[in-house]
## 1
Amino acid sequence: MPFGKLVVHSPNPAYLAERVLGQASYTRTFAESRYQLYLHGELPPETEFYRQEMLERGIYLGHHHGVSGRMRLDRDSLSITLGSESQQAYEKIVWSYALKQIFTCMALRHGALHLKASMLLKKGKAILLLGRGKSGKTTLASYLEQTGYYFAGNTHVMVKDHEAWAIPSWRRIRDSAGRESYILPEHREPANGTIHAIYVIDCNREGQFACSPLDNRTALSFMTYFAAAAGNYDLKEDLVDYHRDAGFSERMSLLAAETVLIKHLLRNFKLHYLSADIFDPVCAMKVHDHFHEGMGL
C-alpha cells in the first residue's frame, strides 16, 4: 500500500485479495505504517459511536446496505463481525466501507489526500480522471489503455504534493448498452507517478468533444463533494470518530486536514472539464490526440 501494509486477518484473506484488491508495486511509498483489518472475530461490547450504530442496522455507506454486525475502530486497526459467515457478505462490507475508511484515515494521517479517481500512467507521468457516478471515467480510461496508457487504478488514488499512487481494485465495466461486468486486472508495473494533469470527466453520447479549464470555485466544489473521500463517500462521521476519545479540535483534525490538502492540490494543478463520446470513432480519436499532445508525445 502507498501508506505501508494492510494486513487482513480472516479465515480466508486470499479470497478478498483475489476478489477485491489487486497486487501493486510502487517505486516508493509515502509512509511505512501497518494497519490491521480483522474480520469474523468475536467483539466485546464497546461504547457506541456513529458507524457502529449504523452497522447494527445493516447500513454501510451511502446507498450501501447489507448484513448487520458489530465493529471496533482503533487507531491502527478495524475489526468487523457480521451476522453471517458468508464470504460475499464480508466482501461487500470490505469494499463498500472498510477499505474507504482505512485508505482515507491512513492517507490523511500522513499528509496525503484520498481521491475517488481513475489513474493512467505513461513514462512516469500520471493523469487523474475524476467524475460523478456513471460519468464514464472508467470507460475513457479503458479506451486510453488500449492506446498505450497503463491503467493503474480505477477507484482509489492517493495524492501527496506532486505524486499520485493508485491502489488496484476491481473494475466495473459498462458497455455501450449499459450492461455491467466486473474484472480484477493484473498489474505488473509500478502504480505511482508524477501528476501531469487532472480531468473531470462527463462523457456524452452525442459525438461531441469539449475540454476547458474549470474556474476555482467550481473546481473546489467538485473536488470536495465528488472526489475527496470524506465528501464523496460520506465519511465525515468516521473521520471525527477516529479520534473520538480526544478533545473537539483533535476530533475534527482529519476533516480539517482534508480541506487543507484539497486547496493545496488545486493551487498546484488546474482541473479541466472533459466531455466526450468515447463510442463515437471520430470523437474517440480526438480524445486520443488530446491526451497524446498533452503528454508531449
## 2
Amino acid sequence: MKEKYKVITSEKNQLITNVIHAIDKNVIKIYNRGLAEYGLTMQQSLVILYIGNTDKEKVYQIDLERYLGLRNPTVTSMIKNLIANDYVYRIKDEADGRYYHLHLTDKSLAVKDNLARVIYEINHKIESQLTEEEFTTLSFLLNKVSEIAKAELSEDQDISQ
C-alpha cells in the first residue's frame, strides 16, 4: 500500500474525523454527568429546551429530528422515554390525526432553567480554557469541516437520485 493511503491511527497523527468524534463523545459524557441529577441526558435536555424555548406554536417530532440532526427511530425512542418519565406529553393534531405535537409537563417546566444553566456552565468552562483567538479559529475550522462534510453528503444524494 502506498504510504499516502495508509490510515494513520497513532496518537501522534490521528485522522481529523477520529479527533472530532472523540471530542464529541467526551464532551457529551461531561454534559451527561452534569445533567445526571435530573435523570436526563444532554439530548433529552436539548429536547426539553427546544420545546420550551421555541417560537413555534406546535412542536412536532420532525422539528426535533431536524434540530438535533437525528433520525426518526432515535427521536421516537427519546420522546417515549421523556413521556414515560413525565417530562413531555403529546396531543393529537386536530388538523391531521396522524401527527402529535409535543408539550412540556410541569415536571420539565420546573427543571428547564436548571438544565439550561448546567449546559451553559459546562460550555463556558470549556470555552474559557481557550483564548478568544483560539476559540474563533476553532469555530471557523470546525464549521469549515462541517460544510465540507455537508457538501460531500449533498453530492452523494445528487448521485443517488
## 3
Amino acid sequence: MDNKAYMYVLECADGSLYTGYTTNIERRLQTHNAGKGAKYTRTRLPVTLVYQEEFPDKPSAMSAEALFKKRTRASKLAYIENSIYDKFKGQTIKKSKK
C-alpha cells in the first residue's frame, strides 16, 4: 500500500505563497485552479505549483507543512531555491540544438 504524501507550495496570481499537503499533487492542483480548493486560493487564481516534497505518510507531510508555514516569505523562497539546487547539483545541462 502506497501511503506517500506531499507538502506543496503554490504561487498565487497575486504573488503570495500557499502551502498545503496532499496525497495527489496533480488532482489537488486541479482542485485549487477550479476554485474548489482552499478558501485562501479561491480569490487568487490561477495558482502555480512551485515546490513539492515527498514524505512517507500523511502525518509527516502535515508536520512539514506546519513547520514551513512558520517561516518568513524570504526563508520559504530560500528553502525552495536550495532544495531545487541540491536536486540538480552535479548534473550537466544539455543545450538543445536549434
## 4
Amino acid sequence: MFGLVLGSGGAKGFAHIGVLKVIEELGVKPDIIVGSSMGAIVGGLYASGMSSSKIESLATSMNYKSLIKIADFGGGYVIRGDKLEKFFRETLPIKRIEKFPIKFAAVSTNIIAGKYVVLERGDAAKAMRASGSIPAIFKPVEYKRTLLVDGGVLNPVPVKIARDLGTDLIIGVNVNGRVKKLKKKNVNTITLVVQSIELMESKLAEYNKDALILKPRLENFSSFSFSRAKEIIKIGYNAAKRNKGKIKRFLDL
C-alpha cells in the first residue's frame, strides 16, 4: 500500500502541491495520505477529490488581503480560527473524512496530555484546522474534552503514523530542512514562536529513516511566505521531478 506523508511547515507546505503534480504525472494515486499542519491542509484537499491544479489555483490566488478575510483576530489569541474552518468547509468537495475517495488522516497534538492524535473520521474541516493550529497564534481546538494544536509539534513528518495505519511503501515530504535565519529587526512574539517551532520541527523530521523522503530546498522561505506560493510550488515540483526515477523504482512502476 502506497502512503504519502506531507509534513508541516506553514507556507513552505505549498511545496506539497508540486510533489502531488509529479505523482499525478506518474499515473499513480496514494492509497492513503497522512498530513501534519500544512501537510494536512494540502493533503486533506487532495484526498477529498480536488486535483493538484485546483489546489494550486487556490494557493496562488491567495494574498495578504484574502488571508485577512479568513483570519478572525482576538479572543485571547492572535487568530481564533473559526473563519479558517468555515473556509475549509466551503472549499472541500466532501465534508467527512471517512467519505473521501483517498483514505486520509490528519495529525494533531493533544496539548493537555502531550500526545499526538490521529484524526481519521468526522469533520474534515475541523481536523485540518486542528492540525494547523500553531500554539500561541491560533486558538486550540476543543476535541473530546481536551485541546488540540498543530500536529507538527510532535509529528512534523508523521511517517510512523502512516506505517501504523498499514502502509508499507511511504513517500514523505519534509519542507523543514534548513530553517531561514531570523533577522534581528523582525523579532517579535509571533516570529519568535514560529521560528522556535520551525527549528524544533526541522530536528524532529530528521529521524524518518524508513521511507523515501523528499526534501525541497526552501531555506530562503519562511512559514509566512504565503505571497510566494507559485515559487514554492515550483520548488516542490522540481524536487519531486529530480527524484522521479527514484520514486518509480521505490513504487516499482
